[in-house]
UniProtKB/TrEMBL annotation:
<keyword id="KW-0436">Ligase</keyword>
<comment type="similarity">
    <text>Belongs to the ATP-dependent AMP-binding enzyme family.</text>
</comment>
<feature type="domain" description="AMP-binding enzyme C-terminal">
    <location>
        <begin position="487"/>
        <end position="563"/>
    </location>
</feature>
<dbReference type="InterPro" id="IPR000873">
    <property type="entry name" value="AMP-dep_synth/lig_dom"/>
</dbReference>
<dbReference type="Pfam" id="PF13193">
    <property type="entry name" value="AMP-binding_C"/>
</dbReference>
<dbReference type="InterPro" id="IPR042099">
    <property type="entry name" value="ANL_N_sf"/>
</dbReference>
<dbReference type="Pfam" id="PF00501">
    <property type="entry name" value="AMP-binding"/>
</dbReference>
<dbReference type="GO" id="GO:0006631">
    <property type="term" value="P:fatty acid metabolic process"/>
</dbReference>
<dbReference type="GO" id="GO:0031956">
    <property type="term" value="F:medium-chain fatty acid-CoA ligase activity"/>
</dbReference>
<feature type="domain" description="AMP-dependent synthetase/ligase">
    <location>
        <begin position="42"/>
        <end position="435"/>
    </location>
</feature>
<dbReference type="InterPro" id="IPR025110">
    <property type="entry name" value="AMP-bd_C"/>
</dbReference>
<protein>
    <submittedName>
        <fullName>(2,3-dihydroxybenzoyl)adenylate synthase</fullName>
    </submittedName>
</protein>
<dbReference type="InterPro" id="IPR045851">
    <property type="entry name" value="AMP-bd_C_sf"/>
</dbReference>
């Protein structure tokens, strides 16, 4: 297994790096990594527009944590970062320390990450939905030296839960009101002498772009979560690819509803905002009235929405009429198939371009930029094939990333149009290896390509596009024939009676597996298996792919970033 390497110890701690020194040096020499660290990029934003609005809290923050929502300028955000860094430094957090973070999307969360990175420390983010089982496992796996959270979140006392995890031995810091005894409040202005001391400490640090800054965690949809270390260099390479496609500017207003705990939040909003400037508006959890109010109040230009919400808005004229979307220019979506008619209608009827996103914590974040794929119906289901010969893409990352599809049975590279294989890639945005002790299998092949576990189809003239088929582990095998659940889900999501759908396999004594559709019906609609089968037959789908069982449900289980928890669905069957 390729594991992360380590630099020299600092004051008893090891400054972990993410790639071999030779690899990092090569990326820098080729210009594939930028020489600036994330704190240096932040400093550039502060210097460029110190008094411009930089970031806003969720409008309902008071209901969530009891704290008053704020909007800060870049200068004010910088002050908040220094205050947080000073408190952490005063209590022993230093370069090389790892700190667990469980804070909802907010100014506090953004400033916490920037404060830790300014100290040379590592953040290990955790969804706020995690409880003692998950939190204690992450704290142990990373040897976290502290935990940062909030006093309360709704009806949960997160700071109290954090104290219980450490059993009194792990320092806990908390934002907001209702901080219990034994937990140190954070986020308030500190004494000028402490600020000067921490700034003197920071100015003396020796930092490289290969230094670890985060340990995020895989979604764990099919297995125990794995730790994914990332450094300044590869995070900014990922973000640069997204920034090239979306083009955030100092005039952009970005509404972020995805938890800032992994690729979706970091690469979809946070880091491209840091690169391009503008105004970041935080939101969590997804609350439609609050979400729409933030779009209208802040005149949001860019945001992300789950595919189900895109579809629901088009079907619900009354809901859409209440939402002022006139400022929106671009909506990113992914994590599930995008119906081409929905993407086309958003662009043609509403004048809003929907961008197809695909990414993983370990690999490159692919996106179908409108400049690369102008036809919205094509963009809905296709992503750029960075390995296509003779094609120049909008993002510079395309030229720096090697991509191939490998047949999961034969191991041969797929070259025929229509051929399917596992997506494999290598380059400056691909991580260096899992956190030791959290994974058993080597994620790289013999040539150093990351084995993504995702099956794609080679499409378009000259193989210029990739179309997501499904996860390798989620393919349903019925009598020796492969069924990709995502393919069937994409077709069924266009049925007017279907609000959400998941397709999973269930055991069959003769065929091995059969196909079951688990459906959340649209409001007031009735769904039958016969209707769904007829819908697929009308699209001339092969008969072996047709669902042979229907289960109705009020909700589909998902992880904190919206991915289906298929193992839970299968367990119900």
């Amino acid at each position: 297994m390729v594991e992360t390497s380590s630099a020299t110890p600092v004051a008893g701690r090891r400054v972990e790096t993410c790639h071999p020194e030779e690899t990092a040096r090569g990326y820098l020499e080729r210009g594939w990594w930028q020489p600036e660290t994330i704190p240096e990029v932040f400093a550039q934003r502060v210097a460029a527009a110190p008094d411009a609005a930089a970031i806003s809290d969720p409008a309902n923050l008071a209901e969530l944590t009891g704290a008053r929502p704020r909007t800060l300028s870049w200068r004010e955000l910088d002050d908040q970062v220094i205050d947080i860094a000073a408190v952490l430094w005063r209590t022993g957090i230093r370069q090389g320390s790892t700190v667990a973070v469980q804070v909802p999307n907010s100014i506090a969360l953004t400033a916490t990450y920037l404060a830790l990175w300014r100290l040379g420390a590592v953040a290990t983010p955790m969804p706020v939905s995690y409880r003692r089982h998950e939190v204690s496992g992450i704290v142990a796996a990373t040897a976290a030296e502290a935990l940062i959270t909030v006093g309360v979140l709704g009806d949960r006392e997160l700071a109290g839960e954090a104290l219980a995890v450490g059993e009194g031995t792990l320092p806990v810091f908390a934002f907001g009101p209702r901080v219990p005894d034994g937990v140190e409040s954070i986020g308030y202005p500190v004494d000028i002498a402490v600020r000067e001391s921490v700034q003197e400490y920071i100015s003396g640090l020796s930092v490289t772009v290969n230094d670890r800054v985060t340990v995020c965690w895989t979604s764990g949809t099919e297995a125990a979560p794995k730790g994914v270390p990332r450094c300044h260099g590869d995070w900014l390479a990922v973000a640069g690819g997204v920034q090239d496609g979306l083009g955030f500017t100092p005039e952009s207003v970005v509404l972020n509803p995805f938890p800032m705990v992994n690729m979706a939040g970091f690469a979809g909003s946070f880091l491209p905002w840091l690169l391009g400037g503008g105004h970041l508006v935080q939101h969590q959890p997804l609350d439609l009235p609050v979400f729409f109010r933030q779009i209208a109040d802040h005149r949001v230009t860019h945001t992300t929405m789950p595919p189900a919400l895109l579809t629901m808005l088009l079907r619900n004229d009354e809901l859409r009429a209440k939402a002022d979307l006139s400022s929106l220019r671009t909506v990113g979506s992914g994590g599930a198939p995008l119906p081409p008619p929905v993407v086309a209608r958003w662009q043609e009827a509403l004048g809003i371009q929907v961008v197809n996103f695909f990414g993983s914590n370990e690999g490159v974040s692919l996106l179908g930029a409108p400049a690369d794929i102008p036809d919205p119906a094509v963009r809905a289901q296709h992503l750029p094939h960075y390995g296509a010969a003779g094609v120049r893409w909008t993002t510079r990352l395309a030229e720096r990333t090697a991509v191939k599809l490998v047949d999961v049975v034969s191991g041969e590279t797929v070259t025929e149009i229509g051929g399917r294989g596992e997506l494999r890639m290598r380059g400056p945005a691909v991580f260096g290896g899992y956190l030791p002790g959290t994974a058993t299998a080597d994620p790289f092949d013999d040539e150093g390509y990351l084995c993504s576990g995702d099956v794609f189809e080679l499409c378009g003239d000259g193989g210029r596009y990739l179309r997501f088929v499904d996860r390798v582990k989620e393919i349903i095998i019925r009598g020796g024939m492969n069924i990709a659940p995502a393919e069937i889900e994409g077709l069924l999501s266009d049925h007017p009676a279907v609000a959400e759908v998941a397709v999973v396999g269930y055991p069959d004594a003769v065929l091995g597996e059969k196909c079951c559709a688990v459906v959340v019906p649209a409001a007031g609609a009735a769904v039958t298996l016969e209707d769904l089968v007829a819908h697929l037959k009308a699209r001339e789908v092969a008969s072996f792919k047709l669902p042979e069982r229907l289960e109705l449900t009020d909700t589909l289980p998902r992880n904190p970033v919206g991915k289906l928890l298929r193992r839970e669905i299968r367990a119900r069957l």
